[in-house]
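Colleagues,

Please find the record for the two-part complex below.
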Amino acid sequence: MSSSRLVWVRTSIWIAFLVLSTAALALLPHMGYSLAFWFNLLLWIAMASGLNLMAGFTGYLPFGYVAFYGIGAYAAAISVKMLGLPIWAGLVASLLAGAALSLLFARTMVLRGIYFSIVSLALAVICRLLIANLPDSVAGGSFGIPLGISNPLGSYYLMLAVALATLLIVTWLAQSRLGLALLAIRDDPDTAEAMGVNIGRARLKAWVLSSIIASVTGAIEAWHTSIVDTETAFNLLISTKAIIYAVAGGLGTVIGPVVGVVTMLIVDDLIWQNFPILNVFLLGLVIVLLMLFLPSGIVGTLIRRKPALRRVLF
Amino acid sequence: MYTTLLIQALISGIILGALYGLIGCSLTIIYGTMRVVNFSHGEFVIGGCYAVMLFYVASGLHPLLSVPLVFVAFFVIGLALYFLLMPRLSRSDDPELASFLTFYGVSLMAGAALLYFFGADTRSLNYVFTPSVIRIAGFILPTAQLVVLGIGLLIIIALTWFLYRTIQGKALRAAIMNRDAIQIVGVNINNLSALAFGLALGLAAVTGVLLALVFPAFVPFSGLDFTLIGFVVIVLGGLGHPVGAIVGGIIFGIAEQLSIIFLPQSLSQVVGFIILVGMVALRPSGLFGKVAMR
């Protein structure tokens, strides 16, 4: 099988899978299922894949990814509650806020490795503290902003759309020139530059895209729960969870983060049901074992052990 | 009145900063020798807090007598963790990322274990020095802070002596500078790394003992805060530079304490992080770092 045909086949299988799952998930509300689990699943798929866009394709791991999620939630809440705009305007505001913040933080990409990660984390903490200290009339202060509108069904469908869009973007990226350029930069920046790749621009595109996904996800979550406050919207666990889910599936693969989210949410659920007291301990143990025995994630390890699986997994 | 306040803030900033510096110092020893991001570092600091509490409750002896005991206990825990985790981790493609996540898991486990054994309530070491305050030139200083500063300085001196004057210490610094070259000259990097890991966890726990004397209370889940401070401090001081970390810690401590005077309490936490971002923008390699990390 030639390489372009291989790519065509596996992409078609994957897109068909996505379309079918989306259709099934879109029908869920009509069958009377509780949406809480599924909303959560879609939210984490969007977050983990959004993070993968940055971490998997450029090698930069933003510990402070939550900054974009939080700023999106706040942009939406402020537009809707304080400025009285409709919800779609709030979503646009969150998108713009995410893009603006990512451009503001773009300079941090001169740092590499753990340096970048720590500074990104510090920036997330700064964002949280600054918003918590804004006057109550602007951002609700430490009590947060109650939106006063809640639309579980609408936010569920929107989350479905965003999760699907994120996966399609990552799928496109994996075959595009931009994706190829990013992988080249990740593996050997000097050679990539010598071959004529504009390192700064390519990275910036991935960074802004990845940030927008997080900020829109944050806005939808705000709409879903109808309240935002700094402690939950900027909770560092959101970054770590997105990272762990993405890594569990396999950073740099398209399917990996989805597999990671589904697996880890199921494991999490099982642990909660069976060992309520030891749940955090066991979750930690699962993470340690995962990293020791499957360091490239579930999908990454499968591809490596059985290269034939490249026909369907990527 | 204002200057008194200022000077007192400066002094407590130096004391806390020295402790932050010690946390950063032990963290950078691990990161420097192994490129391992020990995300569970703060939990071991808190572990030290609980260890001294147990020691004091069980024996009734002076809490400071627990320092050697706690050091040895956590040194052994460090060795065990090293031999349990590192052989597999160091073989992964991206040890930095793999270790970060592994130790995030360890951090969850350690935090959960502390919660299980000690409960969620804040605990404190109910030990009061007599006299509880000392007056020096008109300034009222808590004895605990002075004692802790003294011991902190002793530890820093001992550590500096170890790193610069003993053969193991020199090997450790050499390993931080160039992990490959040191193996060529015949150093067993495995044993050296194990030593570094044990030393770092021992130091972290001893820092916890000192913190318990100064900080009024501790809870099982404040580990992450200390880990974060440790990372900020080492980026300030320059990655892989143990002494730089201590200077970074003191800067961070002073900034934090001064901003408590000038800014509302909730905003004062920002200052340390803003210094970090400013430092990275102006001098990405940190105060003492010679080579910019690419």
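Residues 30 and 197 of chain B are 6 Å apart (CA to CA).

Comments are welcome before we finalize the supplementary table.
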